[in-house]
Recover the amino acids of this structure.
């Protein structure tokens, strides 16, 4: 599998995960006037044995009207085959739900239009809406969230959805800088679910493998290691506390002979270092295993071959088996 194809898989996974967790937040971020009431089944089977998966479909309300909404993420301008496939989704959902269906194509590249017409037959077309993430500036997202933090306002689903998709927006910084800046901001905000913050940060780690060259990625990982996820921070702080306790005890004993001040400083330094290293190592290992397991399960659910899962996650077959 080439690098470009892997990048498409990552983008597809990230988009679907954003919708699964923060569907209404994504709609607000996209300025779509809908409220999702129910997320629908996203697997449909055509005439053959092949199973297709929609990126997202759900029942929504708008102006007291109920309809079905389909969102499809594309990293390139849709081809005729893509449009035909999208229309199949529309026709099937309409036949089951018996109400109107709106389809939005979310592009991660600049689009020269806001809609695409699919010709069904003579004098009969269906219009599909197009939204480009490049029409949104990353600076606006950063400014809005930083302003909320400054005034101690609560971060909502729209903000989190925007941060998960920010790497696809328009930005002047280098890819390395936008990743580091986003990583730092996510780490500074409060998210009730610790595992959710961990998963969002892991998304940036995954994207860095495709957006950066080897040197840039090493620098990125070095700078963000201490901010990997709240669990690691907890383990690190726990290690420091344990280290301080041991260091103080040891320092006090030595201080009886050579002076309490000198002994305490030496004991604390040694204890803090040992406790921090041990806590960090244990926490990072457990945290990464949990995140890797989540992604492996998602890829297995989507019927990816084991060799492709190994290549995407950088794990061996044995490591996947041991998760």
């Amino acid at each position: 599998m080439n690098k470009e194809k892997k990048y498409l898989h990552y983008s597809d996974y990230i988009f679907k995960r954003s919708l699964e967790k923060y569907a209404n937040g994504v709609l607000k971020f996209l300025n779509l006037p809908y409220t999702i009431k129910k997320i629908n089944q996203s697997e449909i089977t055509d005439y053959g044995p092949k199973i297709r998966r929609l990126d997202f479909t759900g029942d929504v309300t708008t102006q007291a009207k109920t309809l079905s909404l389909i969102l499809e993420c594309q990293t390139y301008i849709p081809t005729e085959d893509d449009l035909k496939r999208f229309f199949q989704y529309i026709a099937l959902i309409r036949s089951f739900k018996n109400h109107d269906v709106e389809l939005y194509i979310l592009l991660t590249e600049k689009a020269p239009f806001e809609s695409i017409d699919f010709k069904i037959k003579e004098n009969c077309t269906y219009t599909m809406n197009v939204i480009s993430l490049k029409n949104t500036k990353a600076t606006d997202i950063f400014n809005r969230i930083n302003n909320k933090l400054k005034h101690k306002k609560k971060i909502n689903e729209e903000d989190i959805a925007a941060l998960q998709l920010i790497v696809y927006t328009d930005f002047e910084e280098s890819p390395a800088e936008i990743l580091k800046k986003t990583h730092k901001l996510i780490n500074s905000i409060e998210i009730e679910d610790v595992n959710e913050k961990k998963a969002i940060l892991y998304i940036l780690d995954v994207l860095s493998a495709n957006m950066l060259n080897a040197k840039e990625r090493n620098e990125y990982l070095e700078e963000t290691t201490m901010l990997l996820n709240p669990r690691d921070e907890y383990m690190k702080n726990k290690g420091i506390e344990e280290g301080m306790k041991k260091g103080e005890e040891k320092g006090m004993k030595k201080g009886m002979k050579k002076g309490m001040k000198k002994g305490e400083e030496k004991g604390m330094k040694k204890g803090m270092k040992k406790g921090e290293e041990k806590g960090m190592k244990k926490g990072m290992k457990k945290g990464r295993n949990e995140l890797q397991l989540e992604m492996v399960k998602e890829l297995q659910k989507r019927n990816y071959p084991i060799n492709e899962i190994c290549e995407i996650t950088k794990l061996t077959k044995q490591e996947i088996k041991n998760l």
The chain is about 60% helix and 15% strand. The chain has three domains: 32-135, 138-217, 231-322. The first helix runs from residue 3 to 29. The radius of gyration is 24 Å.
